[in-house]
Structure formats: C-alpha cells, structure tokens
Specification:
Helix 1 packs across helix 2, helix 1 crosses helix 4 and helix 4 packs parallel to helix 6. The protein is elongated, with a radius of gyration of 22 Å. Helices cover 77% and strands 0% of the residues.
C-alpha cells in the first residue's frame, strides 16, 4: 500500500474514532443533564477534544443532536419486518409484533424521557418520522389486510401499544413482579382478545388470513 493511501486511511480511522467519542460523551451528558443542559463546552470536556473539533465534525449542537438520535435508534434495535421471518400469519405474527414492541418500549423509555422536552427540534422530528414510518411497515406486515383495513381496529391497537398507554400499564405489571416476557404476553393477550371479538376480523386472525 502506498504511504499516502495508508496515511489517508489512518486519518479517516482517527476521525471516525474522534466522532464516535464525541457522540458517546454527548449521550452520557444528555442522560445526566438533559439535552438543553449538555453544552458544547461540557461535551468537549467529557470527550477530551477541543470545542472546535465538535464544530468541525457536526457543525454545532443541532448536528450533534441528530447524530446522537441516529445512534440511539441503532442501539435500541428498532424492530422491523425481519422480526416476522418464518412466523405464520394471523395470531402468531400479531403476538410477535406486540411483544417486540413492548420490549422495545422498555428499552427506549429512558431515551424518550431525555428527548421529550425537546421533541420540537427538527432533528428529532426527522428521526421520529423515520421511527413511525418503520413502525407502520412492521405493523401492516404483522396485522395483515384484515386488520389494517379496519379503522376502528387500527385505532384500538394503536392505543394499546402507544407509549402513553404502555408506560403506566407496564409500570403496574413490573411493580407487581412480572418479568418482561410476561408483560409482553399480557399485552399480546389483550390485543388478540380484542381482535377476536371484532366482527369480521376475528375469523381472519384465527385462519391466518
């Protein structure tokens, strides 16, 4: 390998490591102080870099926030359609979807608490839009046309698995000593029980249609 190419690669590796260290530091401080309380100066100090280095890599606080939001979504492992590979249509897919969303909610709760006060920021709204779009594709694949074509059923399921609903419900179950797997199963039971009672939907679920 030519010395110039080697040098360029080493610089790129170093730049990527520096960028990752800055994102790590920002994540730590966001959790400790909130997004508004984590200044560029404080993040630079935690990452052991100059303030200008952060500006060079991210352009400013907004760019850094966007990078952190992307990292958070990656580390939280947002469920997608691969979750359903090999899972039969109907009730098995519905349960797999609901239980995966419950576990995702439990993983993501600390970060929702961090970002909620600043969700009006365009960087976070863009990441939120990506989240909802992915969730919509997964939900459609899991529920099937018999459910997705029923507006009331979709509204009911959306309410049952919405973070605002799940938060209190799962907290009560956890306080009662139930493990994550059991909490997910119970929410799945509620969704399936509702759909089985919904005219025109229940038979399709039972038959896998």
């Amino acid at each position: 390998m030519a010395p110039r190419s080697y040098s360029q690669r080493k610089r790129a590796d170093t730049a990527e490591a520096t960028r990752a260290r800055i994102v790590d530091a920002a994540m730590e401080l966001y959790r400790e102080r909130g997004v508004r309380g984590a200044t560029i100066a404080a993040i630079a100090d935690r990452a052991d870099v100059a303030r200008g280095t952060i500006l060079n890599h991210f352009g400013g606080a907004d760019g850094l926030l966007d990078a952190v939001a992307q990292r958070v979504l990656e580390t939280l492992d947002l469920p997608d359609e691969r979750l359903l590979d090999g899972v039969p249509p109907g009730e098995p897919r519905i349960r797999a979807f609901v239980e995966a969303m419950v576990r995702f909610f439990e993983r993501s709760t600390p970060w929702w608490q961090v970002f909620e006060p600043v969700m009006q920021r365009p960087e976070l709204q863009a990441q939120e839009a990506t989240y909802w779009a992915g969730l919509g594709r997964l939900q459609a694949a899991a529920l099937g046309p018999g459910v997705t074509g029923d507006p009331e059923a979709m509204a009911a399921i959306g309410a049952l698995i919405h973070p605002g609903t799940l938060g209190s419900f799962l907290w009560v179950l956890e306080t009662a000593g139930l493990e994550s797997e059991d909490r997910g199963r119970i929410v799945g039971d509620l969704v399936v029980a509702y759909l089985n009672r919904r005219p025109g939907v229940g038979p399709a679920i039972g038959s896998g249609g």
